[in-house]
Design brief:
By secondary structure, the chain is of the alpha/beta class. It is built from 9 helices and 8 strands. It has a 4-stranded parallel beta sheet with strand order 2-1-3-4, with helices on both faces. Strands 6-5-7-8 form a 4-stranded parallel beta sheet, sandwiched between helices. Helix 3 (about 85-105) links the parallel strand 3 (about 75-80) and strand 4 (about 110). The relative contact order is 0.16.
């Protein structure tokens, strides 16, 4: 596939690029993120490329921006290493970037999230093909595809996962498709799978639509295994997440080019902060602030080894050593927090909000 990202491009001088990641308690996820950054570096070897994290890991975003300033960069392109535009992309990362730019006087241009395009659909399709080709032939029309997304309090981001599902269903010709989520919204993986198995499909392909490994991908697998054990007559096949597929790297490159060409337009048509979306009217004009200041760099993972030295310690131990802090920030209450197919952590009886 020839894309705009694969065509030779002339970059301006004194420009630097930062990839803004979320951060993870899983060293494998951090290592995978850094691997993606290295692949982007290999595409543009003459341009400084750094990375920073919102929480848990180092360097934090402001420290990575310091690296670029020390290199003599006078203009920065910042890319959110996120699949869809939800709270991290719309609020947390821009708030950190705006604060740094105003305090240090460094111009920063913000690019789009990876989002939906033929490349990202192609990357997901490639992961599905891998699992199909490694298993005995089974009629596609008799196979159920389940796509598991991260889940967000932003309905626009959740709807994009559903669109990915439909594009893959029609692309392959699956018998049916369903979308489930690992948290925040509904349906969650386990109740969603139990409902859709009533359609009586005997083969299920589960695609975790995530960039990297981590706690949430493990959660998707664990919850689906519960359903699998209760339904031994159904064959469950587990696809890999997206990781560093070439089409993912191509999309990152396209996002860089969009900024340079002045084409990095966010999709605001269904943004709950800008339009009166049904059920989310109270969030229009919500202040753009970061909710991650209190966990910046709290759980450091070494970039060179991909480890953090805490693997053998429990979460309770980390709390006592002040190496990890629970999310204590408060978001606007998700309107469906008490949904029976949603996470108990969001319900009105719970003290925590995701």
């Amino acid at each position: 596939m020839i894309t705009s990202a694969s065509i030779p491009y002339k970059y301006p001088s004194n420009i630097g690029i930062i990839l803004c990641g979320h951060g993870s308690r899983d060293p494998k996820a951090v290592k995978e993120f850094i691997n993606v950054v290295e692949k982007i570096k290999s595409r543009i070897p003459n341009i400084p490329v750094v990375f920073g994290f919102l929480e848990f890991n180092r360097p934090i975003i402001s420290a990575a921006l310091d690296q670029l300033r020390d290199m003599g960069v006078d203009r920065v392109i910042a890319l959110p290493a996120m699949l869809f535009a939800a709270g991290h992309t719309k609020n947390d990362i821009p708030a950190v970037l705006n604060k740094y730019s105003s305090e240090k006087g460094l111009p920063i241009q913000y690019g789009r999230e990876l989002g939906l395009n033929s490349l990202m659909i192609g990357a997901a399709g490639a992961r599905i093909k891998e699992i199909i080709e490694s298993n005995p032939i089974f009629p596609m029309a008799e196979t159920l595809l389940v796509v598991a997304g991260r889940g967000s309090s932003d309905p626009d981001a959740n709807s994009n996962v559903c669109k990915i599902t439909r594009m893959l269903v029609e692309g392959f010709g699956f018998g049916w498709g369903e979308t489930v989520f690992s948290g925040v919204t509904f349906p969650l993986v386990e109740p969603g799978l139990r409902h859709v198995l009533k359609l009586d499909f005997k083969r299920v392909i589960l695609l975790p639509y995530f960039l990297f490994s981590g706690v949430l991908v493990s959660r998707v697998r664990d919850h689906s295994l519960r359903v699998s054990r209760d339904n031994p007559d159904v064959q469950f096949l587990y696809s890999s997440y997206l990781s560093d597929h070439d089409f993912v790297i191509d999309t990152f490159m396209e996002r860089i080019h969009e900024v340079l060409n002045g084409e990095n337009f966010m999709n605001c048509a269904l943004c709950k902060y800008r339009t009166n979306l049904l059920g989310f009217e109270s969030e229009v004009g919500y202040e753009q602030i970061s909710h991650h200041d209190h966990v910046e760099g709290c759980l450091e993972v070494c970039p060179s080894t991909g480890t953090n030295g805490y693997e053998s310690k429990s979460k309770k131990q980390l709390f006592s050593e002040n190496k990890f802090k629970e999310h204590s920030h408060q978001h606007i209450r998700y309107p469906h927090s008490d949904h029976p197919l949603g996470p108990v952590t969001l319900r009105s009886s719970s003290n925590s909000q995701i």
